[in-house]
Amino acid sequence: MNNHLVIMAGGVGSRFWPMSTPECPKQFIDVMGCGRTFIQLTLDRFKGIVPNENVWVVTSESYKDIVREQLPEIPVDHILLEPCRRNTAPCIAYVSWRIRKECPDANLVITPSDHMVVNITEFQRIISQALEFTSGNNAIVTLGMKPTRPETGYGYIERENSSQPTEFYRVAQFREKPNLETAKEYIQHPEFYWNSGIFVWNVQTIVSELSQHAADVAKVFDTLMPYLGTADEQAKVNELFPSCPSISIDYAVMEKAKDIYVCPADFGWSDVGTWGSLITLSEKDSDGNAAIGPRIELHECSNCIVHTSEERRVVLQGLDGYIVAEKDGTLLVCKLSEEQRIKEFSAQ
Amino acid sequence: MNNHLVIMAGGVGSRFWPMSTPECPKQFIDVMGCGRTFIQLTLDRFKGIVPNENVWVVTSESYKDIVREQLPEIPVDHILLEPCRRNTAPCIAYVSWRIRKECPDANLVITPSDHMVVNITEFQRIISQALEFTSGNNAIVTLGMKPTRPETGYGYIERENSSQPTEFYRVAQFREKPNLETAKEYIQHPEFYWNSGIFVWNVQTIVSELSQHAADVAKVFDTLMPYLGTADEQAKVNELFPSCPSISIDYAVMEKAKDIYVCPADFGWSDVGTWGSLITLSEKDSDGNAAIGPRIELHECSNCIVHTSEERRVVLQGLDGYIVAEKDGTLLVCKLSEEQRIKEFSAQ
After folding, report:
1. How far is residue A192's CA from residue B138's CA, in Å, rounded to a whole number?
2. CA of A311: which chain B residue's CA is closest?
3. How confident is the model at residue B301 (pLDDT cuts 50, 70, 90)?
4. Ramachandran class of B98: left when φ > 0, alpha when ψ lies in -120 to 50, beta otherwise
5. With the C-alpha atoms ordered B316, B322, B325, B329, is the resulting torsion angle positive or negative?
6. Would strands A192-202 and A169-175 be described as parallel, antiparallel, or unpaired?
7. pTM
8. Residues of B with CB under 8 A from a CB of A
């Protein structure tokens, strides 16, 4: 099995404060109240496709222990630690150079650690198909989600026109997060997909693409090459990783690569980027409330999202359209319509 | 000094759940966020009038340790424990028989433990005046508060008409909690006062009145008399106290006694019986919010009462007219207008 899974888990999830905190961000939380955290659910959905010994996590030093605790089934030395945040291109470069050294034939799936997938069977079908495609092909594959609404919180991928349906389309263009008007325009066209941030490629491809399009990043890992997989790795990474520019993989590679495809997918996906999206994904009562936590009692409440991990009992009366979140001695009650201000509240 | 103070502290404060719980009801809580609990504030306001060694607390067995901890300055054997709740008449009878045995000349003030007084100087003037009156007089004195609004949550005392103003008026009638229409009628007349539940009398008077008008209660304490103040007191009280009928002092004595007076008072008093009354008494911001607790941040909130003793940080946004209370792992958010339902919530 050359299939490898890379889980990117360095995010700080500040939009979900106080449920998500810098000490324990969203990917390490049982957001859905299902008994598994987002990163655990992420690993779970690759069961049967990637063996545990081929799973890699890139995260920050401060989350090392949480990852070990939450994913005990993966090798400890596959938890790679970034000494600082440099966006996704250096993150992916690090793990790719490292994997290539151990397994030059590796075929990779790159996934965020804090997204939701509803239909796991369809997800596995799509991933398997994409892995098959990239195993014999120097292609970059992105998973494009069929848009269901004019979402302004996602980037879009536009595919080339095609006379007949296929499983992989050539990408015409990557599109930044649009405004509402543009988003409404996009979803009129079957060529537009949401960019899920899930990528599939073989390790030679991504190393080659990074070397070609992001030479300043590639150079750092070429220098690090002799130390990767050795006892000196972390010290050398701590020394050199910070010299990488902060740049996203989309900007560094996707928008420049030639052999790039989008694989249309429809497995019920969300980046769970807002409380609003969480309420959409959650099981709701007949008044539209999603309550996640022990013993939450709602009286005349509607359209509320309640997430309380540590309260033993919560009684809410007469709230419509509110977020109620409590964790570690911090309580937030905020209108859902004002959730973009939570970052600002948490920073104070 | 024959002045004695009796603090009745057996209440369960269920209307203030979850701030107030059966384990630690309202009188033992720093409700105002001033650093002193209600029972401590009650004792404080008698400084200089009653020496600590003449202070008595009647409470239930389960609150003994809290009282000892919160009022370390009063004698431990002055904390009398009711084995069960039998309303105020048996409570007052117990402490009166007990005090009479030690100090037959005692002159008593009876006070609830969970009320608020704003003007302590005026309070002390009124109490001193009442104690002077009852020290040489077999009168029953009630403190009548000048009503400031048509309150339906209080009982009223109607005094007899008097041609000239005086400090003590004869009581014409006790009136039950009125409906709003009746309350509006009452406050038109200068003869009506709120019944504060604060009483002043000498111990011979109350024992004699109880013996006359509440023989079934008096009989129990006549039987207990040989054991009061001995090592057997608690065991015998536990045995016989439950045989008392459950009856209020108003009903047992006030409404039947002849030599009964009301002393008009105006020292800013409240029984703090509702969250609404607490918000009235508390310091408020310019939007009418009263926030009691560490680090409470309000954004676009108005007319809210927030009481959080254990949260380290609370951020509230977009709430108008709500109660937010958190204690011991229990959170309540409830419209102030629905606060009468809190008892029901807490019972579930």
Report:
1. 93
2. B329
3. very high
4. alpha
5. negative
6. unpaired
7. 0.87
8. 18, 297, 299, 308, 310-319, 322, 324, 326, 328-335, 338, 341, 345, 348
